[in-house]
Amino acid sequence: MRLFLYGTLLSATALARRSGDPALPARCVAATLRGWQRVALPDTRWPTLRRQLRGAVMCAVVVVDAAAAWRLAADEGGA
Fold it and tell me: β-pairing, 2-5 with 29-39?
């Protein structure tokens, strides 16, 4: 599964710890998402994205196995 990372999981330490795969950060590919901005909304735990015509978000793309995907989803409340 390919994941798009734009928030706290851009930290190599956080990604390795939360995914359970210490090699995962080394497989990340840097990317830029144009036309968006990263924002922190009140009373939310994670950053989110909001459209902004001239914005750009530095992010990463990584391919994960099912176990890492499950751990990351569970960590963010999706499992």
Answer: unpaired
How far, in Å, CA of 52 to CA of 37, rounded? Answer: 6
pLDDT beneath 50, residues of the chain: 79
Q: How far apart are CA 70 and CA 40, in angstroms?
A: 25
Q: Could you tell me how many residues make up the chain?
A: 79
3-state secondary structure 2-41: EEEECCHHHCHHHHHHHHCCCCHHHHCEEEEEEEEEEECC
> The whole model's pTM is what?
0.83
Angle at 6 between CA 71 and CA 14, to 5 degrees: 45
Among 52, 7, 8, 60, which Cα is nearest to 34's? 52
Give 25's contacts (C-beta < 8 A, 6+ positions apart). Answer: 12, 15, 16
